[in-house]
Structures are given as structure tokens and as C-alpha cells.
Design a protein that fits this description.
Number of domains: 1
CATH topology: Arc Repressor Mutant, subunit A
Shape: globular
Strand content: 5-15%
Number of strands: 3
Helix content: 55-70%
Order of helices and strands: HHEHHEEHH
CATH architecture: Orthogonal Bundle
Radius of gyration: 20 Å
Oligomer: single chain
């Protein structure tokens, strides 16, 4: 099977193209795609618990820690102890963070609008259904339930 005939290859290639496009846009505003997605997932009024952000974005906690540190250094966010649970930290947006969040929001909306202009809704519905099914299979951990690896034949046996 050629790479371009596999599901994972096509998803990866598409995501990398989208990510490069977003990073090109984000660089004009001194942010990255990752920072933009974090900004989009922070509640503007109530802040967001730091522990809730990584799962929303499918990130490892270590990766999020680096991104949050960078965002704090850029003056996009600030951290505050949760008023209900002092052990928890909430992430809030600064004025600059709010501005960059709006830029990120507009960029995502523009991309989605352009895709919707070119791809019929019926095809998008099928795409969303298929991607949802693949995600469900992976998250349901059913991908390898009936998988058994067959031993490779040695060259001398061939």
C-alpha cells in the first residue's frame, strides 16, 4: 500500500498543510498555531483551569506547560489561584491576549469559510462523519481488538 493510499497519511498531510498555513498567519502577529488554539480555549470572563486546557487540545501536559510559559512571557495570559479550589490555577487573558484571541478566531473562521465555499455541505457532512468514526474507534480503543501480527517470512523461506 502506498502512503497516499492510507488514511493516516492523508490526515497527517492535511493537518500539516493547515498548520503551516496557520503558522504563516500567526507569525505576522508574533504567535504560533499552538498559542492561537490555546487562546481560543480560554474563557474570556472566568478564565480556564490550566488542567482543562491540555485535554481540549489533545496536548501532553509538558507541552502545554511550555506553551503557557511562552504565552505568559509574551504578556498574553496571567495565572490566578482558583477562588473555589486554591490548589487549582486558572488561566486568564490579558488585553493583548484578547486581541490575539480575536485574530486567531478570525483566522479560523476565514479558513472554514473558504473551505465551505469550495466543498459542498454533503461532502463536509461525510468528512465529519468519517473523521468522527475514526476518532471513536481510536478513543474506544477498538482499533487492535481483532489484530494479530503475523510473523514475517524470512528471506530463506521465500
Amino acid at each position: 500500500m502506498k502512503p497516499e493510499e492510507t488514511v493516516d497519511y492523508n490526515i497527517k498531510v492535511a493537518w500539516h498543510a493547515i498548520s503551516r498555513m496557520y503558522n504563516t498567519q500567526a507569525a505576522q502577529y508574533d504567535i504560533t498555531t499552538s498559542i492561537g488554539f490555546v487562546l481560543l480555549n480560554i474563557d474570556q470572563e472566568n478564565g480556564t483551569p490550566a488542567t482543562k486546557i491540555a485535554p481540549l487540545l489533545g496536548l501532553e501536559t509538558r507541552s502545554l506547560t511550555r506553551i503557557l510559559r511562552s504565552m505568559e512571557e509574551k504578556g498574553l495570559i496571567y495565572k490566578q489561584a482558583d477562588t473555589q479550589d486554591k490548589r487549582s490555577v486558572r488561566i486568564f487573558l490579558t488585553e493583548v491576549g484578547l486581541q490575539k484571541k480575536e485574530i486567531s478566531r478570525q483566522t479560523v473562521r476565514h479558513f472554514n469559510q473558504k473551505v465551505r465555499e469550495k466543498i459542498p455541505q454533503a461532502q463536509l457532512d461525510t468528512f465529519f462523519k468519517v473523521v468522527g468514526q475514526i476518532t471513536g474507534m481510536i478513543e474506544g480503543k477498538t482499533m487492535y481488538d481483532d489484530f494479530t501480527l503475523r510473523p514475517l517470512r524470512s528471506e530463506s523461506a521465500a
